[in-house]
Amino acid sequence: MLSPIKDSLLSSFKTKAMKKQYIEQSVKYYWKDIVGDDVARHVSCGKFSRGTLTVHTDSSVWSHQVLMMKRTLIKKINEFADDKIVKDIRIQTGYQAKFREINKDLPNLDYYLDKVTLEEETVRDIKTKTSSVTDDRLRDKLASILEKQKKLDKLKVAHGYHPCGICGTLCEKKEMYCTNCRRQKKQEKQKNIKMTLIGAPFLTYAKLNGIIPCTNAEYQEIKADLIDQTAKKLREGDTSDMTRYLLAMLVTGMTPDIITEDTVNKIVVKFRGKTYVPTSRQ
Question: Would 64 be classed as within a structural domain?
């Protein structure tokens, strides 16, 4: 269904991310056409994340229905997108639960989006962004998708959503950052913990937490991964003092002034499965 769009509109996008975002928004916009009226009345299209699409159902009965027809829905979505953008579907019961406070009998989010009025400046901005598309039909479709997204953003703000503290993307009231920024901050934090442990592998959780605030679970997980990575280097032939002592101090928690060569060799034997014969050192 998106083949003519790929030939014209998609080719005008400069990055894969822009193309991906357009296709995902198109799936949301044409959701009723893709899954059918009956399913669309009870199941709404949520967010895409690394090949997984989250959908919201209005009852446990429809959650079961979606579970049974998951493969069919995935096939329909991918055929529409002309690409394998969905590999799995995650089901959440409670159709548009985040917006249910608008009306206890909320039948369809589209009904409320139609009641949202966009500012003239926003409408002009959308026209400017789509003006480069020469095909009238494609330009109108793109404008409709952008308008719907702006209305949804406005509706979210009315119900407590706020800009992410880093990128400005709207996120839930209880969160300070959006999902992507939270993930990036988590990865950055994990990297900092790992580098700190490499520099001081004997640090206890209490001492590391004083340097980089973290949970004990985060500390234990990263330390375990670092031990596995260092042991792998050892088994692959890296028998340098740096690797041997790093592994030993990670495992025992001993500081450089306490740990002995005998202790190091015992740890090496444990992780290599055979006796370590140290080479002469200068």
Answer: yes
Strand-pair partners of 246: none
Q: What's the DSSP call for residue 274?
A: S
Are the beta carbons of 89 and 70 closer than 8 angstroms?
yes
Q: Are residues 195 and 268 in the same domain?
A: yes
The SS3 of residue 254 is: coil
Strand order from edge to edge, sheet including 52-57? 43-49, 52-57, 88-93
Asked if residue 51 and residue 130 are part of one domain, the reply reads yes
Angle at which helix 241-252 crosses helix 261-272, to 10 degrees, equals 90
Instruction: Report how far residue 129's alpha carbon sits from residue 207's, in angstroms, rounded to the nearest whole number.
Output: 52
Return the SS3 of 213: coil
How far apart CA 39 and CA 184 sit, in angstroms, is 35
Amino acid at 7: D
Which helix (H) or strand (E) segment holds residue 45: the answer is: strand 43-49
Biggest CA–CA distance in the chain, Å, is 79
CA dist 179 and 39 (Å) reads 28
Whether the predicted pLDDT of 98 surpasses 60 = no
pLDDT tens readout for residues 53-92: 988 887 767 888 888 899 999 999 999 888 888 999 988 8
Distance CA 66, CA 43 (A): 8
